[in-house]
């Protein structure tokens, strides 16, 4: 109707979209699924209540379309927001699990090197001159592990706190981690652990690895 104004209201079909949400949530953990559903609902409410007033007196049919309308842009932004709400928690979870896997692998490398040194020399690394009567030291551990024949090419990082330094204890390891070094080691018990507090994605403390 030329010379008059009309109201263009945009409503998205809610039932089909809600039908897909539980299927998406099956592939997420509980926290990620709740967050994704919340963001989807917010996006849908915003788009469903959107109304754009179109003044037909300013329309020029001969000019043709030269770009996206406001409604189309808002719909695309809402869809991108929904996708981000679903994908970001998954990526964060994968990143955390990758750190945990790397921590376990580095811990296995260190424990294997310590056992190999003990098998070849009769005592675990850390004691000066391979004499258990001497107090263990970082200097002795470094010479024994990294000099030829080297049992380690370099000291691996602790991926949880991004530290590679080592704390040596003479008799036993502390009951709890101190987080001030990457690793904590006791040559008397041949025990080396991640010197990191906190728990992994499965509820196991890093100190128990």
SSE order and pairing:
Elements: E1 5-9, H1 14-25, H2 30-48, E2 51-55, H3 70-121, H4 138-146, E3 166-168, E4 183-186, E5 191-194
Parallel strand pairs: 3-4
Antiparallel strand pairs: 1-2, 4-5
Helix pairs in contact: 1-2, 2-3
What does this 3D model show about the protein?
The protein has 209 residues and is mainly alpha-helical. It has 2 domains: 5-57 and 68-94, no CATH class; 97-208, no CATH class. Helix content is 44%, strand content 10%. The strands form 2 sheets. Strands 3-4-5 form a 3-stranded mixed β-sheet, with helices on one face. A two-stranded antiparallel ribbon has the order 1-2. Helix 1 packs antiparallel against helix 2 (30-48).
Task: Note the main sheet.
Answer: 3 strands, mixed
Lateral strand order in the biggest sheet: 3-4-5
**β-strand amount:** 5-15%
What count of helical segments does DSSP give? 4
Residues in helices, as a percent range:
40-55%
Number of strands: 5
Summarize the structure in short.
This protein is 44% helix and 10% strand.
Keywords:
209 residues, mainly alpha, 4 helices, 5 strands, 44% helix
């Amino acid at each position: 109707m030329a010379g008059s104004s009309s109201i263009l209201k945009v409503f998205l079909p809610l039932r089909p979209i809600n039908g897909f949400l539980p299927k998406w949530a099956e592939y997420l953990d509980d926290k990620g699924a709740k967050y994704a559903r919340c963001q989807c609902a917010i996006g849908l409410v915003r788009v469903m209540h959107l109304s754009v007033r179109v003044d037909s007196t300013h329309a020029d049919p001969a000019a043709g379309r030269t770009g996206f309308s406001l409604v189309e842009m808002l719909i695309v932004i809402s869809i991108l927001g929904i996708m981000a709400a679903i994908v970001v928690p998954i990526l964060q979870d994968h990143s955390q699990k990758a750190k945990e896997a790397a921590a376990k692998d580095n811990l296995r490398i260190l424990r294997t090197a310590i056992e190999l040194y003990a098998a070849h020399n009769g005592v675990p690394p850390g004691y000066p001159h391979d004499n258990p009567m001497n107090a263990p030291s970082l200097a002795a551990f470094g010479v024994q592990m990294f000099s030829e024949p080297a049992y380690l090419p370099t000291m691996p990082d602790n991926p949880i706190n991004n530290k590679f330094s080592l704390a040596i204890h003479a008799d036993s390891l502390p009951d709890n981690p101190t987080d001030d070094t990457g690793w904590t080691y006791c040559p008397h018990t041949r025990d080396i652990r991640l010197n990191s507090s906190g728990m992994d994605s499965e509820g196991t403390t890093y100190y128990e690895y």
